[in-house]
Amino acid sequence: MICHFKRQTQLPLSSVVLPARLCFHGPISLDSPHVGEDLERLFTLIVINCALRNGDAHLKNFGIVYDDVQGEARLAPVYDLVTTSVYLPRDSMALTLNGTTKWASAKDLQRLGEVRLGSAPARVRAILERVEDALVSAAEEMRLYNKEHAAFSEVGNRMLQEWEQGAKHSLRVGRR
To answer: What are the extents of the domains in the chain?
Structure first.
């Protein structure tokens, strides 16, 4: 069974990371052996959405899976990742962070990871770097795809530009 977080207008990202209730079934069980792993996956997904410039990352695109209402809930696999800023040039985040929907900076994400995830600064930087490395790899594949599919190259090249802006603003922590 998949259950989405309840949608609320302009809910802060910090509320997504540690919501008081998931759906209608009660509080998160913080004694689950997977809470830390799932929180890190959720943080990573937030970072990816900022880097890709996915302004469609609203609460219905974050879900949980479970077999039994009383059983353990896990973060659902990732879905609905789109570089929306290619189609909506003035797009911004669907959820707020620090009271704004402006794309989160690397500094904002670093703080979110340290405060809400409770990770060491080095661990948060490693997540940002891992996402940047993946984005660099995806960009290489996109360039090849653009060469082989001329009809897509205009959109593909705009995606590459957005990814570069996303990496520069949301991921760069003193490298590249």
So the answer is: 2-170
